[in-house]
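Revision sheet: structure tokens.
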Amino acid sequence: MGCKSNNGTGCGVVRFLMNVLSSCLGFTIGMIVFAVLTVVVICVIVLSDGSGGSIKPDSVVEIQLAGIVSERDNDDALTSVIGESDPTVSLEKTLNAIKLAKDDDNIKGISIKAGVLLSDPASLDEIRNALVDFKKSGKFVYAYADHYTQGAYFICSAADRVVLNPIGELDWKGLGATTVYYTDLLAKLGIKMQVFKVGSFKSAVEPYTRTEMSEENRRQVKEYVGDIWQNMVTLVSKSRGIAPSKLEALADRYMGLAQAEDLKKCGLVDTLLYADQYDDMLKRKLHVDIKEDLNKVSTTVMCESVSEMGVGHAVAVVYMEGEIVDYKEMGFGAESVVDTKTMRNTIKKLIDDDEVKAVVLRINSGGGSAYASEQIWHMVKKLAGKKPVVVSMGGMAASGAYYIASAADKIVAQPTTLTGSIGIFGLVPDVSELLGDKLGLKFDVVKTNELSDLGNFSRPFNEAESRLMQNYVENGYGLFLKRVAEGRKKTPAQVDSIAQGRVWTGSRALKLGLVDKLGSLEDAIALAASRGKIKGEYDVRYYPESVSWFESLSMSETEARLADKQLRQMLGDYYEVLTSLRFIRKQDRVQARIPYIIKVE
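Predicted:
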């Protein structure tokens, strides 16, 4: 019905009121819909958070080996409910499931479904060793894949039967380490990197100053890649009964393009079956009628099937995975970081917790901010003064991460862990050519003192400033040597002789006295319990504590995680290239880190 008032103002008021009412109604409806969705999400989470219930007899644990291996399961509740999480293999959950399955009488074996797996070599070792230990129970391990990547095959080679799709593929090609160099790209943009470093092997700056590896870096990379490959060849040879020389010859042929029949003839796989035929094989192994369903138990359900012991004393496992930073940011490149605030709060809580008798620091990091590394070292040192602290090294525990590890009582590493890299550097971009010659910007300055404008991007460092910066880096290196010398009971000179930024594998680090023992996370936990004088059963508690499902409903954080994961999936290998460039802008002047990108594949 139209407005009949002769006064146009009256019609405007009516329209205004109608707009207000419709807006209020829309807002109310939106809030109701949001409330309903929230209730639905809460119900789903509550129902899914319950225990997996009892495991049925004659069951198998199914382990999915496809996706990115991370130390912990980082997916929050909301992304799980809406189905937006990328395939991720949680090392913590996988290892716990295998351990629990070994002692559960209802579990008769493990079935591995393998695929494209992205992982560091040490994590592969952890899972493979857990499967080897599981087989000591007399239970079976079978593996199946349409396509075995080399890392997935390394794990599955420990299985009793390795099954491949009749037209499937298996990568066996040896290892290669790739470093990306940005020097020419930066030159085209008018950017030069001013480098200040200590350590002839400290190669983290090379991607910004060179176009190929230095002789020192090539020597160390060749050494640790060779060590990792020999470890893989030795273990696969032992499990598959194939001579190492034959495995080397097969790698030279690049078996990724071989026919499935040839892969079977050379002994890399046992059987060629389609997926449904593989399930039938499992049924026969379990003496289950072909028409019946298999009782498959996921790693999540396996872990939820056993309630916490609650025996009153515990070993805490603190995860330190990713870039070491001063503060945590959300979004691109920051899904997994070690930040000072989180570590400070976590360690303070453990110091005050009388039930925690010992602590394991699970480190998988290539380092990062030298300042942040010192702050976390200080907290770990304080913790070690109250209770035993043992470090368990994952894929990497190098540079700033080794700095932190040196505060512990004992260090346990995998043979293929990359560690050491004791050295620091400063990397300051000179963008004067970009700003002046390419963009045409001009700068002028007024200053009260000679170095008041030190760090001004409009010009490069002068000689005096460069000398100051180099001295600053050398002082930082001296402190690094001191920290390691104190922790490892060596002199600074002894540490310097094996430092200089050099990267070592865990097996070589043991001989050099940089680590105390080779072993798994489980070995480190047992060592910590022993040093904590815990007798009998004990809890294992994991930190930092997971974010509650309610806190994870924060859309800003969830959206940032989703965006980061989608970029990782879309960009593939280039994801790390872009994140490394991002950290140039965000990082401190002085860094203690391994080369930005070490891809061993």
